[in-house]
Design brief:
Blueprint: E1 7-12, H1 16-27, E2 31-38, H2 43-52, E3 55-58, H3 61-65, E4 70-75, H4 83-91, E5 95-98, H5 106-118, E6 123-125, H6 133-143, E7 150-158, H7 163-168, H8 182-198, E8 201-209, E9 221-228, E10 233-239, E11 249-254, E12 257-262, E13 265-271, H9 278-284, H10 306-319, H11 329-348, E14 352-353
Parallel strand pairs: 1-2, 1-4, 2-3, 4-5, 5-6, 7-10
Antiparallel strand pairs: 7-11, 8-9, 8-14, 9-10, 11-12, 12-13
Length: about 375
């Protein structure tokens, strides 16, 4: 049953990610799972409500927003359907925390951000990878200048999704609701980490296409060359077409040190000037034995809800004025802009400079 007390959180949308939201909220401190909304009911929706002991609203979003004790709305609808329920929630005075991506175009991102600002409610974006211990240590090292001048910074997402994965969800692999393919849906977490750790991207040149899947409009493989505002160069390679799928990586390197993150572990942590804590960091975040852990590289359900829990707890503590929000709307928008620039470059064959003035035109990626 849902716990009582604290802020009441309601989930909109009952797709796969909603279960992770629900488990995270029930495990967290300072809030409870109050209710959920879905456009269409059925056995799956009824089971969700029963499993989590909550009231389910089917089709009547206004009634959902009027649920007693509802303070926060968690948006878990398909990616291109975040804006409308978020706007309505903001107008109803509810705070909003939105699953990645914030939205699928810059214009829809900006409209969502503006709606929350206008109605004076808090907007948070969900990027649970930012909460990992090794990532937090990399961020502190970057902020402290331990890498020296950044030189090469990369993101690699060598993942796999079956054809069945795309076939089971009609919105998957579409521009209208998925907003893209391997980058916008899967790689966005790692792309967010790259730009968060290495700083703003200045220019992008990219290639992308559909190599291994049928009946989708978007890419299942992409490669981009980047130039960062700092002067560093780097790459993003993201795919759902690399069987059997292996862990994502982030490389942050400079003339004074290098860190390589694989999954949630550090496979390299080396600096010109060794600090007393470095050996402990290497030991604590060393990779586990091969095959010892599961990840989302090949199975989207094989992820932990712990990162979501940390973000929900951070959101509540921010509402209480106890700490700063880890990912606000503007932060959540950044990875979307990088991905849209990759799409724009790949579809035109030209480099694109950031910030973008508008969302580049999109069309079906060719089957290569």
């Amino acid at each position: 049953m849902a716990a009582s007390g604290g802020f009441g959180i309601g989930i909109v949308g009952l797709g796969m990610i909603a279960e992770f939201h629900a488990k995270a909220i029930q495990a967290m401190e300072g809030a409870h799972l109050a209710c959920a909304f879905t456009r269409k009911g059925g056995e799956k929706a009824d089971k969700f409500a029963k499993d989590f002991g909550i009231q389910l609203y089917v089709g009547d979003y206004d009634a959902f927003l009027k649920h007693p004790g509802l303070n926060v709305v968690a948006i878990a609808t398909p990616s291109g359907a975040h804006l409308e329920p978020a706007e309505a929630a903001a107008k109803a005075g509810k705070h909003v925390i939105c699953e990645k991506p914030l939205e699928i175009t810059l214009e829809r991102c900006d409209a969502l951000i503006a709606a929350c600002k206008k109605n004076k409610v808090l907007l948070g974006g969900i990027f649970p990878s930012r909460t990992g211990g090794a990532v937090q240590i990399m961020r502190r090292a970057a902020s402290a200048g331990r890498f020296g001048r950044l030189t090469v910074c990369n993101a690699l997402i060598p993942w796999w999704r079956t054809q069945t994965y795309y076939d089971q969800g009609k919105w998957r692999g579409t521009w209208a609701l998925d907003g893209g393919g391997a980058l916008m849906n899967q790689s966005i977490h790692t792309i967010d980490l790259l730009q968060w750790l290495a700083g703003p991207v200045k220019e992008i040149f990219a290639f992308a296409g559909c190599l291994a899947h049928q009946n989708i409009e978007v890419e299942d493989a992409a490669a981009a060359a980047l130039k960062f505002k700092s002067g560093a160069v780097g790459t993003i390679v993201g795919t759902t077409a690399m069987f059997p799928g292996t862990s994502n990586e982030v490389h942050i390197a400079g003339d004074k040190g290098t860190a390589i993150l694989r999954g949630s572990n550090l496979i390299l942590w080396k600096f010109e000037k060794e600090m007393p804590e470095d050996s402990e960091i290497r030991e604590k975040y060393a990779p586990p034995p091969e095959g010892a852990t599961k990840s989302g590289a090949s199975d989207p359900r094989a992820i932990s809800f712990t990162g979501h829990q940390h973000q929900f707890e951070n959101f509540v503590r921010c509402l209480r004025g106890e700490e700063k929000l880890l990912v606000d709307g503007l932060e959540a928008r950044k990875a979307v802009e990088v991905i849209l620039a990759i799409y724009g470059s790949a579809l035109t064959g030209k480099p694109l400079k950031l910030p973008l003035k508008k969302t580049p035109k999109r069309k079906k990626f060719p089957k290569i």
